[in-house]
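#struct-help
A.M.: can someone run this one for me? Single chain, 304 residues.
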Amino acid sequence: MKKHNFSKKIALSICALALSAAITAGFFTGCKTPPVEKPVNALDLLDDESAFYIAIPNEVDPELVVRFLQNNIQNLSEKDAALISSRIDNVYCGLNHKKNKTIIQIASDARIGDAVASKIFTAKNGWESNLVITTFKKTYNVYDRDNLELAFPSSDIALIGRDIPVMLNQLDNIRSLEGDLEALPPHLLDDEVYQYLSGAGAENEIRFYAGRPQSFLTTLTGAQLDLKLDHVSGSFVCDPKYEGQYILKLDFKFKNETYMKAGRGLLTLAFGLTNSNCQLIGEDELIISDIKIAKKSLYKILIL
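D.P.: on it. Structure tokens below:
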């Protein structure tokens, strides 16, 4: 009996060694960990065809993100909007205003994924699911309703609005790149716009950039001001003293010094500001800061 037990122990030891060797050698191919996807910055997916861009870190003002969702996704329930918003870290959006219509392109850092999305954007709720194949032969679900498209190509990216197939192709293009992405910037935006919007999260503020600023300025001031601007950028944060108010900073880049001098006076009158609110940068740039503006007024400017 003792001899039998000894033999059994030897057999078990051999089996254990064989099992360990098999695991080390990778013989259990069915347990292989799937390849890790290369991380992609959502801002890299926006194109350069929008007139107005905005970067919204969700923690700065979650209400603004919910408004973005409900305004641009018709019949999205408050519950579903809150669910999606709770999983969003940053929203990057390009806007074009055409007549009475706002055309959007959104890429966001969002912990949603297609598994969650498929339970919300269902046929029962009026959504149609279609497959899009990129030039890299990758297949993605795209949800469509009333000419609005959405896609959730990975567990941390959500896309909404125009030209989603283009953004999906850009996503695959970035993942296919070899080497240091910082040395080879993959983004489609102008470098100045990209760098400015990228800093929103670190500064904990909402940032925007208007490359075609005339319509934005008209809505902002309520007056037709032809200031010969190259662009307008700015940022805003929630006023800690008043819940329904933002504190806004605007940076006006004029086409030359002459236009800047004329524009300064008009803007000071339009905003009712004093010199303490204004700062000249070089010969053609004017920064106006500490502007108090009601949230509802800014939502109107952003067509929310």
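A.M.: thanks! The first strand starts at residue 52 and ends at 57.
D.P.: also worth noting: The chain is about 35% helix and 30% strand.
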